[in-house]
Amino acid sequence: MPELPEVEALREFLDENLVGKEIARALPVAVSVLKTYDPPVSALDGTTVTAVGRRGKFLDVEASGPGRPDGLHLLIHLARAGWLQWRDVLPTGLPRPGKGPLALRVALTGGDGFDLTEAGTTKRLAVHLVHDPADVPGVARLGPDPLADGFDRNAFAALLAGERRQIKGALRDQSLIAGIGNAYSDEILHVARMSPFKPVQNLTEEETTALYEAMRTTLTEAVERSHGVAAGRLKAEKKSGLRVHGRTGEPCPVCGDTIREVSYRDSSLQYCPTCQTGGKPLADRRLSRLLK
After folding, report:
1. Can you list the pairs that 90-99 forms with residues at least 24 positions away whose Cβ atoms lie under 8 Å?
2. How much is the pLDDT for 229?
3. What is the DSSP string of 38-98?
4. Distances (CA, A) of 2 to 79, 181, 271
5. Which of 6, 45, 146, 290 has its CA 20 to 30 A from that of 237?
6. Mean pLDDT throughout 223-250?
């Protein structure tokens, strides 16, 4: 799943390649991709892209033109298996709806543009066309951006105050902190040397500081690694930079212990026992159910 660093890199790429260009047509291909109907997607035809922003894991493509002085926002959430593919030359002809990965195409008047694609059978990629980003529920409920200039250690501590859940779940909650998903929450907790199951209410002042610093450092470094990387190479760049997530069975790059995994129905987390749990393996929920 693209998270804050990858979406920020896509924002940067589109800011360089899309802003100032005219949209010829936006073509939904998958029935499930477009989540709004007013204004219609045809309202983008003939508008010019004025800016590309990021709101948590959402890309925000702003466009305006004749008859649209207030502007439009194309909000894109790539979900777990979605991606954006830039094309210097788009294929001619209209794309055919079907079972392929193509979900939506944005064609520019110069012949270039981008495709939104989604792998797999579970379709969660979402596109909203609105006048105000706050009209999208997923945007309206977003918590603060963890890399925002004003998001300091005290602001982070204030968010955690009163939480009564495990730290892994808190970090992934978009209404608490925007942009962190499964992969980078694993990475942050590894840097902070904390168990993903540690209750937030048990954090000491020193641990809160360590967690905040690990979050800022991990995300900042990931953004810097992705800087200037072409859209098509961002997935590989993300994977190569991860130290524990997705590396079950490999040695921890810090201590050499074997990275372990806890599996859930549709996801998993990875951690280092030596670095994070005092050498004790965490119970694998999937295996525990099989043994009952």
Report:
1. 90/115, 94/27, 95/27, 95/29, 96/29, 97/29, 97/30, 97/31
2. 76
3. SS-GGGGTT-EEEEEEEETTEEEEEEEETTEEEEEEEEEE-TTTEEEEEESSPPSSPPPPS
4. 7, 8, 20
5. 146
6. 86
